[in-house]
Design a protein that fits this description.
- This protein has 6 helices and no strands.
- The chain has helices at about 1-10, 15-40, 50-60, 60-65, 80-105, 110-115.
C-alpha cells in the first residue's frame, strides 16, 4: 500500500500526471507482456521465431531504429537471442518513459496547488 501511495503522490505533482500514468503505465505492461509471450513461445519446439513480430509491432517506432544495429550477427546460441530480446524490451520501456515525459505536463506550483498556504502577513491573536 505504501508504494501505491508514493506513486499517486508523485503522479499528482504534475498537471496531467494521472493522464500520463494512464497512458504510459498500460503501455509498459503491454511491452512486458509481449516480451514474456515471445520468450515463452520461442522456446517451444517447432518455433521459427516469427512470434517476435508481436514485440516489433508493440515497440514499433524505436524497434525500427534498432533494426539498423548489427543484432542479426549475434549467435543463435543462448546469449544471442536473450540479448536481442532484452534490447527490444529496453527500447519499449524507454518509449513508455518518453510517453510519460511528454504527456505529464509541467510540475504544479506548490502555492497554486494548495499543498501549502500562500505566504502572507502574520495574523494577530485575539487577547
Amino acid at each position: 500500500m505504501r508504494p501505491l501511495r508514493a506513486l499517486t503522490r508523485y503522479v499528482s505533482r504534475y498537471e496531467r500526471g494521472g493522464f500520463a500514468a494512464s497512458i504510459a503505465g498500460p503501455y509498459a505492461l503491454i511491452v512486458v507482456a509481449a516480451t514474456v509471450y515471445v520468450a515463452i513461445s520461442t522456446q517451444r519446439p517447432g518455433s521459427q521465431g516469427l512470434e517476435a513480430v508481436v514485440l516489433f509491432a508493440v515497440t514499433t517506432p524505436i524497434s525500427l531504429l534498432l533494426l539498423s544495429l548489427p543484432l542479426a550477427s549475434l549467435p543463435d546460441d543462448p546469449p544471442g537471442p536473450q540479448i536481442f530480446l532484452l534490447t527490444i524490451t529496453a527500447a519499449g520501456l524507454f518509449q513508455a518513459w518518453l510517453l510519460w515525459l511528454i504527456a505529464r505536463g509541467r510540475r504544479k506550483d506548490k502555492a497554486a496547488g494548495g499543498d501549502t498556504p500562500a505566504p502572507g502577513p502574520p495574523t494577530a491573536r485575539p487577547s
